[in-house]
């Protein structure tokens, strides 16, 4: 399916949604929702026909054609169901005023009196419009030209004649009568063409074709199907436009004795001497239950069967109603009683109408599984859709299609799947806009399937519009889509995608929060848990994996708006807690750098605010230690005196800064207060793990930094011993954070302290603690 069609359909939907309170605009026959979508399908078909580049399979083209036809059907019947029809006089009322009311006027009154009949006639007109283009045949140069030549030749040679005459009934009247082969072939082609014209509702063209074939008698038999019309006596107001065509207004047309004509057509359709094709032609002209079998024998496609069934139903209903009108001079001239009683008196018309409607529905439902010789079968989704739309059962239609989607009857790999899901999705939305209330669960399933089609087609910018129609699930579904973007969209694209949620009526804040939650869930499902032996945090770390990057960037969704900063704070703590617990300091730092500075000013809830501030405190310490290492690496033997003095000043400042920051962190119950150690909840356990990972590391690194710098900064030896006092202080319980792993044991630290004590003797004397008092 062309990618432009997705966007074009979305444009039509967007415009229609802007007019959802204007029913007349949505149902406009030219610019309404259904006509626009039908036009889009037709344009795609025309483009495919002109280019013929193989982009579309035959199945896709057929699906597009059927979708176009179905939108035409919706436009034909939905306005009649959604708008209140004008009030028309009944046929009996017209006859009470004027017994000479023409049959065509009475037929119109009968149609207006029955909503179902009006709809069926509209469906019949739609079937005429969507019928295949009837083929024409070349005009003949004379009536049965070759047969006439054979007969003349036989007369000259004294041979027996194949026909006794040239009248139209000669072939059927005589037992062995036959036309010349060329004439017989032409006759067969003519009847096929006439049937195709009648199937397409092009009666006048069929009449013209008969005249060109020098068969005016057949033209007259076709014209006999027209109801008698005489506007001058129809008790109809004469419009101003009619003044220019006085002859048309005053003259009559149609068949005054149509009942007799219909009886004759019925007998012709039942005549076994006629060919099957010709019997089908007469059955199409006079569709009745008696001729229905011959009419259906001429049907090739499912649409043909639908047309035949509706033709029979409409003709029978009109004929039955007209036959009751004994007051009508034209329909019942021999029974006309201008002063007689109304034949409708005593008849429960409502009950009779309901019974007729049940019969009609039953007859149409038989088309569910009718066999066809050409085209898509009766169980094709579009054929089923058309049937259910005619039966006014769109809810059942949508529920059935949704059930097939769920049970896998329709596979996304099918070539027609995108076209079908697009049609049904827009059908759901159309019914919603005009308040026909499609079933909610079925609508969700169908829209979800179409959203998957859009995602597979890369139509990201359209997801929000269709997700917005999911009602209560709209936010969750659009959030699922945004989460599915993973790392493929940069920050700007993510912001734009989130903004589309607001543009299509979704709660942007809620979408952002749910998207972040789903992204975090997806990332954690692919990451190992932060438990087990404590990892090393020294040395070069591996680059972040895709799963880690996804977790880092999950925080972006809640940093676009101030309204989501509180959620961002909570999620930031979870993410930082995980990475620090895994020893991934650099990845955690990358996550911290994505966060807006405003998070630091959030005060409530206090527990989360304090945790976040303490993470920032830790990274400030860690960065200072890195700067000390970098500064230390700048020392080289070839430095001048002034350069060395400047370097030493910077180095001393950084070391002192690092010492002060670490001491503050160690003495302020970083992350876990002493009273919280016994709670045992998951968060506390994770925070204790972080302390066990980094408190010993910071203590040992600070000790090493101070001890190694004692030759340049002599007072640092004193600071190493003072640090030992802090570690031993029961107020801070720092010794509890040392573990049993090498490098993190309290014994490892005590060995370093012992070395520092011995370092106190380097300046001479026997008191190793003398440096503390200096």
UniProtKB/TrEMBL annotation:
GO biological process, one term: mRNA export from nucleus
Organism: Phlebiopsis gigantea (strain 11061_1 CR5-6)
One Pfam family it belongs to: Nup84_Nup100
A GO cellular component entry from the record: nuclear membrane
Protein localization: Nucleus, Nuclear pore complex; Nucleus membrane
Keywords: Membrane, mRNA transport, Nuclear pore complex, Nucleus, Protein transport, Translocation, Transport
Purpose of the protein: Functions as a component of the nuclear pore complex (NPC).
Alphabetized InterPro entries for the sequence: Nup84/Nup107 (IPR007252)
Keyword Transport annotated: yes
Name assigned to this protein: Nuclear pore complex protein
Family to which this protein belongs: Belongs to the nucleoporin Nup84/Nup107 family.
Magnesium as UniProt keyword: no
Molecular function, one GO term: structural constituent of nuclear pore
Assembly description: Part of the nuclear pore complex (NPC).
């Amino acid at each position: 399916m062309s990618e432009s069609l997705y966007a074009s359909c979305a444009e039509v939907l967007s415009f229609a949604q802007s007019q959802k309170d204007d029913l007349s605009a949505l149902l406009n026959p030219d610019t309404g929702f259904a006509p626009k979508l039908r036009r889009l399908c037709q344009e795609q078909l025309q483009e495919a026909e002109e280019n013929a580049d193989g982009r579309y399979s035959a199945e896709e083209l057929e699906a597009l054609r059927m979708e176009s036809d179905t939108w035409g059907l919706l436009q034909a019947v939905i306005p009649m169901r959604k708008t209140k029809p004008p009030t028309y006089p009944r046929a009996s009322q017209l006859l009470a005023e004027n017994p000479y009311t023409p049959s065509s006027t009475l037929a119109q009154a009968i149609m207006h009196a029955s909503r179902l009949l009006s709809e069926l006639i509209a469906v019949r007109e739609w079937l005429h419009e969507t019928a295949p283009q009837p083929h024409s045949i070349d005009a003949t140069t004379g009536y049965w030209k070759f047969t006439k030549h054979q007969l003349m030749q036989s007369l000259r040679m004294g041979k027996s004649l194949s026909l006794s005459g040239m009248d139209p009934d000669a072939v059927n009247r005589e037992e062995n009568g036959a036309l010349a082969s060329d004439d017989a072939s032409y006759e067969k082609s003519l009847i096929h063409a006439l049937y195709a014209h009648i199937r397409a509702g092009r009666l006048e063209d069929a009449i013209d074709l008969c005249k060109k074939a020098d068969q005016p008698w057949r033209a007259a038999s076709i014209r006999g199907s027209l109801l008698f019309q005489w506007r001058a006596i129809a008790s109809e107001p004469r419009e101003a436009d009619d003044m220019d065509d006085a002859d048309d207004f005053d003259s009559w047309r149609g068949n005054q004795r149509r009942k007799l004509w219909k009886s004759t057509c019925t007998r012709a359709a039942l005549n076994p001497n006629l060919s099957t094709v010709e019997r089908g032609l007469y059955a199409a002209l006079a569709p009745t239950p008696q001729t229905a079998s011959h009419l259906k024998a001429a049907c090739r496609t499912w649409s043909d069967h639908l047309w035949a069934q509706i033709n029979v139903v409409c003709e029978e209903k009109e004929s039955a109603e007209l036959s009751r009108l004994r007051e009508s001079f034209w329909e019942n001239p021999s029974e006309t009683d201008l002063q007689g009683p109304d034949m409708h008196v005593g008849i429960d018309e409502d009950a009779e109408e309901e019974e007729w409607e049940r019969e009609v529905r039953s007859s149409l439902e038989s088309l569910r599984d009718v066999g066809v010789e050409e085209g898509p079968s009766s169980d094709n989704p579009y054929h089923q859709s058309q049937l259910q739309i005619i039966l006014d059962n769109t809810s059942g239609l949508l529920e059935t299609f949704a059930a097939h989607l769920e049970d896998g009857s329709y596979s996304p790999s099918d070539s027609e799947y995108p076209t079908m899901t697009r049609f049904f999705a827009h059908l759901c939305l159309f019914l919603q806009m005009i308040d026909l209330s499609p079933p909610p669960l079925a609508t969700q399933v169908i829209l979800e399937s179409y959203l998957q089609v859009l995602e597979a087609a890369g139509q990201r910018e359209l997801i929000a519009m269709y997700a917005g129609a999911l009602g209560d699930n709209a936010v969750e579904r659009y959030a699922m889509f945004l989460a599915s973007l993973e790392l493929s969209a940069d920050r700007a694209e993510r912001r734009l995608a989130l903004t589309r949620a607001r543009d299509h009526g979704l709660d942007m804040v809620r979408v952002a929060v749910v998207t972040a939650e789903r992204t975090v869930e997806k990332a954690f499902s692919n990451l190992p848990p932060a438990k087990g032996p404590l990892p090393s945090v020294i040395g070069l770390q591996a680059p972040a994996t895709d799963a880690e990057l996804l977790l880092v960037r999950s925080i972006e969704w809640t940093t676009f708006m101030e309204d989501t900063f509180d959620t961002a704070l909570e999620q930031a703590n979870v993410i930082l807690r995980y990475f620090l617990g895994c020893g991934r300091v650099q990845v955690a730092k990358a996550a911290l750098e994505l966060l807006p500075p405003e998070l630091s000013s959030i005060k409530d809830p206090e527990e989360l605010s304090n945790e976040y501030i303490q993470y920032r405190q830790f990274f400030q310490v860690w960065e200072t230690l890195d700067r000390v290492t970098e500064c230390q690496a700048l020392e080289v033997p070839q430095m001048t005196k002034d350069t060395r003095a400047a370097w030493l000043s910077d180095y001393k400042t950084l070391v002192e800064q690092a010492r002060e920051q670490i001491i503050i962190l160690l003495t302020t119950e970083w992350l876990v207060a002493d009273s919280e150690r016994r709670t045992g909840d998951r968060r506390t356990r994770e925070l204790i793990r972080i302390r066990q990972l980094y408190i010993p590391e910071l203590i040992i690194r600070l000790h090493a930094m101070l001890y190694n710098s004692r030759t340049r900064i002599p007072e640092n030896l004193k600071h190493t011993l003072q640090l030992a006092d802090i570690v031993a202080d029961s107020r801070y319980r720092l010794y509890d954070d040392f573990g049993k792993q090498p490098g993190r044991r309290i014994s490892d630290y005590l060995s370093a302290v012992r070395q520092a004590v011995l370092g106190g003797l380097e300046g001479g004397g026997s008191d190793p603690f003398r440096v503390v008092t200096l």
